[in-house]
Design brief:
By secondary structure, this protein is low in regular secondary structure. Helix content is about 0%, strand content about 0%. The longest helix has 4 residues. The termini are far apart.
Length: about 200
């Protein structure tokens, strides 16, 4: 739990195992809540089941890293590179992912309620069953992503690009889709009840 263990101060320097030891010694940094891990090369790391509550990973290289089942509520990932990363079943409520790169990332079953994904790159990412209620995806690039059965109610997606995406059975109730590009997307059984689709490209 968040109360267990000594929390790291937000700006305390972090010493992580060398890359070749990361898999075997990952238990040494299971509590990284409030940690500052900005501008670091953390590619191919195993952060699964890690407490990263309110941690800062600004502009860090996190490509191919595993954050599955981790608590990343209120984490700061602005400008971070999470291409090909695994965030399966992660908790990213209120996370800041402004201009982050999440292309081809695994975000299935992720909790992204109220997350800031403005201008994020979600090209070809997998968001099946993800919960994005209240999230802001304005100007995000989500072409060819899979939002099937995702919860997108009350999201803000101004001018977002979701061309050739898949949103089968997605819940988009009361979403703000002003000028969004959903052309050539598969939106079978998607629920747009109460959504604002002014200037949206749906075909």
């Amino acid at each position: 739990s968040r109360e267990n263990g000594k929390a790291l101060n937000r700006f305390q320097p972090i010493s992580l195992p060398p890359l070749h030891q990361a898999r075997s010694r990952c238990s040494e940094y299971k509590n990284l809540r409030l940690a500052n891990l900005s501008r670091l090369n953390l590619r191919d790391r195993d952060f699964s089941h890690t407490d990263l509550y309110s941690a800062t990973l600004y502009e860090s290289d996190l490509r191919n890293s595993d954050f599955s089942h981790s608590d990343m509520e209120e984490v700061t990932l602005n400008l971070a590179n999470l291409s090909h990363a695994c965030l399966f079943n992660g908790n990213l409520r209120y996370a800041s992912l402004y201009t982050a790169t999440l292309s081809m990332a695994d975000l299935q079953h992720c909790i992204l309620q109220r997350a800031d994904l403005r201008e994020a790159d979600l090209y070809c990412s997998n968001l099946q069953y993800a919960n994005l209620q209240g999230a802001d995806l304005s100007y995000a690039y989500c072409s060819q992503s899979d939002f099937s059965l995702a919860q997108l109610a009350r999201t803000t997606c101004r001018e977002a690009i979701l061309r050739k995406s898949k949103g089968v059975g997605a819940n988009l109730q009361k979403a703000i889709l002003l000028g969004v590009d959903l052309s050539q997307s598969n939106l079978q059984r998607a629920d747009f009840t109460g959504a604002n689709i002014q200037r949206a490209m749906l075909y």
